[in-house]
Design a protein that fits this description.
Elements: H1 4-11, H2 22-30, E1 34-38, H3 45-56, E2 59-63, H4 67-79, E3 84-87, H5 95-98, E4 105-108, H6 110-113, H7 116-124, E5 129-134, H8 149-152, E6 166-170, H9 175-184, E7 192-196, E8 204-210, H10 215-229, E9 232-236, H11 239-248, E10 253-255, H12 261-272, E11 278-281, E12 296-300, H13 306-313, E13 323-329, H14 332-344, H15 356-359, H16 361-381, H17 387-395, H18 402-411, H19 423-432, E14 436-442, E15 447-452, H20 454-462
Parallel strand pairs: 1-6, 1-7, 2-4, 2-5, 3-4, 5-6, 8-13, 9-11, 9-12, 10-11, 12-13
Antiparallel strand pairs: 14-15
Helix pairs in contact: 1-3, 2-3, 16-17, 16-18, 16-19
Pfam family, one: Helicase_C
EC number: 5.6.2.4
GO biological process, one term: double-strand break repair via homologous recombination
Length: 463
């Protein structure tokens, strides 16, 4: 067995050094322990996957969710002189060749590994295998934002090669997701090591702003930032939006699940090699993308979860250089996410008349009263002043100057609101529900004021 540092310098170069928890995680695996690593995107998870089997002189099996990602990783290893292959729909070696000792690292899709024939081959080759590694391990958990059925069954492999250490790595995993990963992979035992790194990405400049009303203005802004900053990923919420914005952004390539696999592969390759520096994509493009110099990530629409946004924004600046992430949101995003949830649960989300949410009549009346006060305040101000002024009016506090006091008196005709009302959350709900939108009042100062949408005006009249 060679030292991990010797392998690092031989294949990656004498200037390379381990960072953060890399060395300790690799050491734990080489000593036969199971390891869970939660490491920020760009933190160097690949080395933890690849070095232990090379140092031990055994085969490393790496499970990954994306064919394009595996192809990139395999090619990268081959370029370094490391014997690697891919098993799956685009496999480069036969199953028997992959496990006969002629390869150091074998990448495979979860579906391929879980076939009964492959499981039996793993059992037969168990003495040659030094590591089973699961990349993007949050896909194992149903609580994760990218759950995949085959990933959830990967624990079955351990019954065929029980003595082989297991590594699970991910960039995003809540406490609940981490526990689920460990449970499903049978990693809850005394020989388990868990390493978590700081999730902060200090080189990323994050911002969120209302989506411009005109898509042409939005596209002009994106193209300008892309030209100024460099390689850019534009994330959208649906495949239809991906096709639309691809057509609106000259020179871009497109990537989403409904495209032909060859088209997706061509788009990925064009972006990775900088033939195109602008990629429009859905969530289908994300996990483990090996392009460290992405300088701008733009989200048109709000991702369904915070974890999903962390993954997408995390594509930027993986080389440590300053990069920018902008999220353009709109009230209609909530309706889009609701439709995703409805589809997931195979039907419309309707009033069941049984749970506390659907039977909370008195609380609903109070909430409607609060909504009406804030909607009235926003409408009274005529879309000329910020949300803080609208909340001031709605809360019933005295206002100055005199003209604002007059507006205050109009709003006080509405039913009073509870003293402990969280007005900021109410405002966020009204915007997210598409009842209120922001309109640019002063472009030079980037000042936008809230106003009622047609739907919001109808809602106000109905309350």
């Amino acid at each position: 067995m060679e030292s991990a540092k010797t392998i690092l310098h031989r294949y990656w170069g004498p200037d390379w050094e381990f960072r953060g928890c890399q060395s300790k995680a690799i050491e734990a695996l080489m000593n036969g322990n199971d390891v869970l690593v939660v490491m920020t995107t760009g933190g160097g998870k690949s080395l933890i996957l690849q070095i232990p089997p090379l140092a031990m002189g055994k085969i490393g099996i790496v499970v990954s969710p994306l064919i394009s990602l595996m192809q990139d990783q395999v090619q990268g290893l081959l370029d370094r002189g490391i014997r690697a292959c891919l098993l799956g729909s685009a496999q480069t070696s036969s199953d028997s060749e992959a496990l006969d000792g002629s390869h150091d690292i074998v990448y495979a899709s979860p579906e391929h590994l879980l076939s009964q024939e492959m499981l039996e081959r793993l059992r037969e080759a168990k003495d040659k295998i030094g590591l089973i590694a699961v990349d993007e391990a949050h896909c194992i958990s149903e609580w994760g934002h990218d759950y995949r059925t085959a990933y959830g069954k990967l624990g079955k492999i351990r019954s065929y090669i029980p003595s082989v250490p297991c590594l699970a790595v991910t960039a995003t995993a809540t406490g609940r997701v981490r526990s689920d990963i460990l449970k499903k992979m049978n990693m809850f035992h005394e020989n388990l090591f868990v390493f978590r790194t700081q999730v902060r990405r200090d080189n990323l400049c994050l911002s969120a702003c209302p989506r411009p009303e005109e898509d042409l203005d939005l596209c002009k802004a994106i193209l300008q930032r892309a030209e100024d900053l460099g390689p850019t990923i534009v994330y959208v919420m649906t495949t239809k939006q991906a096709d639309y914005f691809h057509s609106m952004l000259p020179g871009s390539v497109c990537y989403h699940a409904k495209l032909d696999p060859q088209v997706r592969a061509a788009s990925h390759r064009a972006f990775i090699t900088n033939q195109s520096t602008l990629l429009v994509a859905t969530v289908a493009y994300g996990m483990g993308i090996d392009k460290p110099d992405v300088r701008f990530v733009c989200n048109i629409g709000t991702p369904a979860t915070l974890e999903a946004y962390y993954q997408q924004a995390g594509r930027a600046g993986r080389d440590g250089c300053i990069s920018e992430c902008i999220l353009y949101w709109a009230g209609s995003d909530v309706a889009t996410i609701d439709s995703f949830q409805s589809r997931h649960f195979s039907g419309d989300l309707v009033d069941c008349g049984m749970c506390d949410v659907c039977t909370m009549v008195s609380e609903t009346r109070v909430l409607e009263s609060v909504h009406r006060r804030l909607l009235t305040s926003i409408h009274t101000l005529g879309g000329r002043f910020g949300m803080s002024k609208a909340i001031l009016l709605a809360s019933g506090r005295k206002c100055t100057p005199l003209w604002l006091h007059a507006k205050h008196m109009q709003v006080q005709q509405e039913a009073p609101a509870p003293k402990n009302t969280d007005w900021a959350s109410i405002a966020g709900f009204l915007v997210g529900s598409g009842l209120v939108e922001y309109k640019t009042v002063d472009a030079q100062r980037s000042f936008s004021a809230p106003r009622l949408t047609p739907r919001g005006l109808s809602k106000l009249r109905a309350l």
